[in-house]
């Protein structure tokens, strides 16, 4: 049986470190405020927003909540972001995605001041990350790197295969692995012979958004498997993009779902908030 990479425990440790840092900053008269905007009442988004606000409360970050109606126009949302950009008390701005279809997410992301872009989605943040400059890192991929490091898994020189090339997970994941000196391959829906490629991986990152897609014939014996996927199954339980039970005996280490990458995403958001002061 593979070693379980415990994202819950590692994120708890990270949050405790951040809590201490926030207390130190507070002692120096520096308070941190995160503005959290949700448009509409998508139940999954509401859960994510609640978890983020709870993490803020635990760490000592003030969160300002903006719960806007589904019909909010793009102009109204932009006007709020402009106000928050100008508000010196606000250090970070988070707009929960996805947004309703009538709002252009790219326009909204670009409207957030890069120095308050704690999600790390602004083109300036993505560009800085790509060329190794200072800036906010996209939370989920940064959380994966933190998980690997804190689990004692070496990245340098390893063959890493990322399944998925989205702007929020796959692409930044590849850039961050490259920064850690891995040899990186990015795969996607048009990749030919996917299994042949994924079987080369010392570290396989699954972020394709297909429940239990990665089976034992996709992985090399002894590989490390990181499962970014989150899906609610018909029985109400969560599962990832990896078929955990099918793969676990073949690999050396694996993240569970839930309790793997998910909690790390929020912890890295908190890290970005602390960095924003
Ligand atoms: P996405 O935007 O739907 O992107 C999926 C990517 O996977 C695309 O690049 C797509 O390729 C590729 N893909 C789809 N089917 C494939 C296949 N059969 N073979 C190879 N590649 C395939 O998804 P996302 O936003 O990156 O999210 C991925 C998963 O991570 C989802 O389950 C999501 O819920 C989860 N997630 C978790 C967290 C967390 O905090 N744990 C955060 C974000 C996302 P093309 O580009 O060719 O279409």
Characteristics of this structure?
single chain, 277 residues, alpha/beta, Rossmann fold, 2 domains, six-stranded parallel beta sheet, three-stranded parallel beta sheet, 11 strands, globular, binds NADP nicotinamide-adenine-dinucleotide phosphate
Describe this structure in words.
The protein has 277 residues and is of the alpha/beta class. The chain has two domains: 30-116, Rossmann fold (3-Layer(aba) Sandwich); 139-262, 3-Layer(aba) Sandwich (Rossmann fold). The chain has helices spanning 7-27, 43-59, 74-86, 105-111, 123-130, 139-150, 170-179, 194-198, 244-247, 261-275, and strands spanning 3-4, 33-39, 62-68, 92-95, 159-163, 183-187, 203-206, 224-227, 231-232, 238-239, 253-254. The strands form three sheets. A six-stranded parallel sheet has the order 1-11-8-7-5-6. A three-stranded parallel sheet has the order 3-2-4, sandwiched between helices. The protein has a two-stranded antiparallel sheet with strand order 9-10. The longest helix is centred in the first third of the chain and has 21 residues, at 7-27. The chain is globular and about 55 Å long. It starts with a strand and ends with a helix. The structure holds NADP nicotinamide-adenine-dinucleotide phosphate (NAP).
């Amino acid at each position: 049986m593979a070693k379980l990479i415990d994202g819950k425990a590692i994120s708890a440790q990270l949050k405790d470190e951040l809590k201490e840092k926030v207390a130190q900053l507070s002692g120096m008269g520096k308070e941190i405020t995160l503005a959290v905007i949700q448009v509409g009442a998508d139940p999954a988004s509401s859960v994510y927003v609640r978890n983020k606000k709870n993490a803020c409360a635990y760490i000592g970050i003030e969160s300002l909540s903006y719960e806007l109606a589904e019909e909010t126009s793009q102009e109204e949302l932009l006007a709020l972001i402009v106000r928050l950009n100008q508000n010196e008390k606000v250090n970070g701005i988070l707009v929960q995605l996805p947004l309703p279809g009538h709002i252009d997410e790219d326009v909204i992301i670009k409207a957030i001041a890069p120095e308050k872009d704690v999600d790390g989605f602004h083109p300036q943040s993505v560009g800085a990350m790509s060329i190794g400059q200072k800036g906010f890192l996209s939370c989920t991929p940064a959380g994966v790197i933190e998980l690997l490091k804190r689990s004692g898994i070496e990245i340098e020189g390893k063959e890493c295969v990322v399944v998925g090339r989205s702007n929020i997970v796959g692409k930044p994941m590849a850039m961050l692995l490259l920064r850690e000196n891995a040899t990186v391959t990015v795969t996607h829906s048009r990749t030919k012979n996917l299994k042949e490629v994924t079987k080369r991986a010392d570290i396989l990152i699954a972020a394709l958004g297909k429940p239990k897609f990665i089976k034992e014939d996709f992985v090399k014996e002894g590989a490390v498997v990181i499962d970014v996927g989150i899906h609610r199954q018909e029985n109400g339980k969560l599962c990832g993009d990896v078929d955990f039970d099918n793969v676990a005996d073949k690999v050396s280490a694996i993240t569970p779902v839930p309790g793997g990458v998910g909690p790390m995403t929020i912890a890295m958001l908190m890290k970005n908030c602390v960095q924003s002061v």
